[in-house]
């Protein structure tokens, strides 16, 4: 078993990474960081993975958990909300983590009226418990 974190380049992802690391350490398991990309083209994928690895290492250092075992999984999806959600949920199903940690940004009242939030799709459709880490005001 592992703890999975859905990673995105927004600041809420850094908070989710840190909380995911704490949850993995608490549970005595590994951390798996899932990042959805439009394409798994080798050059782009390696550049993405290197940048994500830097973010994971920074989050682990900030939480005083530098020895935690972790891995980055790049998953091919699209750029549409439904495609990203489906790709992420497919990776979660394949990995079978005991917990999925996601970051969520605050939305305006108007933004809440529109459907299509990736976080909302994941919360509603994931087959594992989901821990949502909100960005500060």
TrEMBL record:
It holds the Pfam family Usp. SUPFAM superfamilies: Adenine nucleotide alpha hydrolases-like. Residues 4-134 form the UspA domain. Belongs to the universal stress protein A family. This is Universal stress protein family protein.
